[in-house]
Design a protein that fits this description.
The chain is α+β, with helices and mostly antiparallel strands and 161 residues long. The protein is 34% helix and 16% strand. It is elongated. The termini are far apart.
């Protein structure tokens, strides 16, 4: 007796599924993985969130990267660069502009040989920090402009910091 016993392999079903996905993929412009992600359904009912801790300060106060004293160097002719550098008097040079930011004052130090572009950009940055109260500056005082070879009481105050 010879009889044929058919096995259910599911080849035709998987092939038809593959062809449907290929047609969808071609017409929608999305990749197969993206379509699979859009078609999936997730059950978030068993996900438990951590309770909020009221003892931690808000993010904008706890993670402030500002120190009490910051010095920005503004340099460049065509492409002006602004860098945060160590706030010491030894880093000041005559060819660049520097902005010293404290909690209460902003000092704009203009080197003797700094160019017009550096000076203008330094004025813009100092004005922005002052108007937006950015980088830890909290006061509403005007920007204090200092020239390298002109000394006055504000210059002595600047060098003392």
């Amino acid at each position: 007796k010879s009889s044929y016993t058919g096995l259910k392999s599911g080849t035709s079903e998987s092939e038809s599924r593959r062809l449907r996905v290929q047609r969808l993929e071609g017409s929608s412009g999305f990749a197969a993985a993206a379509l699979a992600g859009l078609a999936s359904q997730e059950d978030f009912s068993k996900v438990s969130l951590k309770p909020a801790q009221s003892t931690t300060p808000p993010i904008n106060q706890s993670l402030l990267p500002y120190s009490n004293l910051m010095l920005l160097q503004i340099k460049g002719r065509r492409h002006v660069q602004c860098r945060l550098i160590e706030p010491t008097m030894s880093v000041l040079n005559s060819g660049d502009c520097f902005i010293l930011i404290t909690c209460n004052n902003i000092y704009l130090w203009i080197g003797e040989y700094s160019n017009v572009i550096e000076t203008a950009k330094a004025n813009d940055i100092a004005g922005y920090i002052q108007s937006q109260k950015d980088l830890g500056y909290k006061s509403s005082n005007e920007v204090i402009v200092l020239r390298e070879n002109i000394t006055d009481s504000k210059y002595d105050e600047f060098t003392a910091l």
